[in-house]
Structures are given as C-alpha cells and as structure tokens.
Amino acid sequence: FLELKNKMFIVIIDEFSKWPEVIPMTSTTSLNTINVMREYFSRYGICQTFVTDNGPQWTSKEFQTFIKNNCIKHILTPPYHPQSNGAAENMVGIFKDKMKKILDNTPNIIQAYCKFLLDYRNTIHCTTDK
Fold first, then answer.
1. Quick check: 23 and 36 in contact, CB under 8 A?
2. Backbone angles phi, psi at 111, to 5 degrees
3. What is the band of 5 on the pLDDT scale with cuts at 50, 70, 90?
4. Which of 3, 50, 97, 124 falls 20 to 30 Å from 57 in CA-CA distance?
5. Three-state DSSP class for residue 51
6. Beta-carbon neighbour count of residue 30 at 10 Å?
C-alpha cells in the first residue's frame, strides 16, 4: 500500500509478466483489502502464490481465511526487509516518482494514476521485451 495526496493505493505486480495494477482504495482494512483482491482475481484469475509484507490486513484472520479458501500460497516477507518483494517495492518507487511529475500537470489524482498506468503499460519492459 502507499499513500499519495491523501489517497491510498494498493500495488500488485505479476511476477511473470511484470503487469502492474495500481488500485485506489478507500481504506486498508482487511475486509476492504479482501474485496479489492476478489475484484482483482475476478479479472485476472486466482494466483498460486501471493507475496506481501506483514501489514495487519495481510496477517489478519479474515485475510488468512480468504487465502486458504482460494488455495493460494501466501508468502510474508521478513519484517524490515522490503527487498524480499522487490518487484512490488520497485513499482511503488516508480509510481511515486512518476505520479509526482504527472500531478504537476494533471491535478486530478485519479486521472493522473490512469495516465501513469497507460504510459507504463505501453513502455517495453526490459525483462519481457513486451
């Protein structure tokens, strides 16, 4: 999760394709996080493995039940070791950096985040060449 201009976002990146999703959230409670994940899985399918930090929404009983019910292997990164989830952490940094620049010209944060995703997704990725 990250906060930008008083708006919360969840960042999800597919480790294989490097496809990023950045989803605005109204809150980061376990229930809201589960609802966002349900919506994400309804679009892209349920993943086999899901890597997160140790935030309370990920370690809650509700989220653990959700993960178990969907047969997902949940890997929690070691505390104070964000590089264990390098792809997502890298995307958070890129998102913050680019959003600051976009927001100079586009004051609406939702329009700005849509512009970021459009630009990023249409740039050839050095790992996938796509």
1. yes
2. -60, -40
3. confident
4. 97
5. strand
6. 20
Answer whether residue 130 is part of any domain. no
8 part of a folded domain: yes
Q: What are phi and psi of 89, to 5 degrees?
A: -65, -40
Which two tokens mark 94? Answer: 């890129």
Any idea what DSSP says for residue 50? E
- Is 0.85 topped by the overall pTM? no
Domain presence at residue 32: yes
3-state secondary structure of 80: coil
Which residue range(s) make up the domain with 20? 2-121
Average pLDDT over residues 45-55: 93
C-alpha distance from residue 130 to each of 79, 85, 124 (Å) = 33, 22, 5
Q: Decide if 58 is inside a domain.
A: yes
What pLDDT sits at residue 41? 96
Structure-model confidence comparison of residues 87 and 48, the more confident one? 48
The CATH number of the domain where 52 resides is what? 3.30.420.10
Measured CA to CA, the distance from residue 95 to residue 90 in angstroms comes to 9
Domain tally, the chain: 1
